[in-house]
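Comment thread on ticket #2218

A.B. wrote:
> Attaching the input chain for the structure job we discussed in standup.
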Amino acid sequence: MIFFKLIRWKNFLILMFLAALIRLALVPGFGASIEIDLLHYTLLVFSIVFIAAGGYIINDFFDVTTDSINKPNRLIIDKHITRQQALKLYSIVNLTGIGLAFYLFLAIPVEQIRLIFYIIVFSPLALVVYSIWLKRLAIVGNVLISLLTGLSIFCLGTALIDEQQDPVVFFTIIVYGFLAFLLNLCRELIKDIEDIKGDHFCRMKTLPILIGKKRSNYFIFGLLTFTILILLSLVLAYFLNLNVLIFYAFTLIILPLILISRKVLEASSEKDYKTISFHLKLVFLSGICSMLTFLIL
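C.D. wrote:
> Ran it. Output below, let me know if you need it in another format.
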């Protein structure tokens, strides 16, 4: 059970749910043909899951001091497992993830699998650099983690289709990946404000430490407003004929984001930021569930 807590099992359920929606709703909703079989797609999903698990482990490994201040009740490394055990688990999940990606690279005669392979293989290195260095810098680390979130959607989606034959599906996958990047970036910045006490103790230079909570609130508000405008523009410009999707987007994504952005301006306590972070996660879930609307075209 400690292992599952360490690798954030709830996030992996969301990732697997996302993968299922892409394969069973988004791609079939456009009538596109699926390029790889279910077994190989499942192996791809698990490859991404294992790489992400390694990221959580190595991040917690370097975050023992800050976590002991910010969230002592949720501390796992040095409390429930040793650092040596954590490094062994990190090695096992990373090697498994890379091994699966290498097998898929050799086994699947699909052009786009090459790019997906490179993304998966270089992700552990990016996550190590983030955990050691980039997370201590304002914005840069947040952007990297959010980019990897968006790229996971890109990998799961583009593995299924031929970009040349199904450009509309490819574009839709890019849209979902980009919006996931923006939403996750907002949430990462909120989490930086939540963790400001421990980060300040460890002399990190996150955005709220450099400019303060209030200015960070304004920055996140601006980013949320930008996300809303981008989403609104995309829906009206490219999906105007999809009435169900438009209704869904307005009621379950755009309106909640407007309410959340208002809450960001008023936030001051740790409880406020935790609530906002949770609501952003719900909007992310709502966003990926919008893929189901493509089955009602």
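A.B. wrote:
> Thanks. Noting for the ticket: The radius of gyration is 19 Å.
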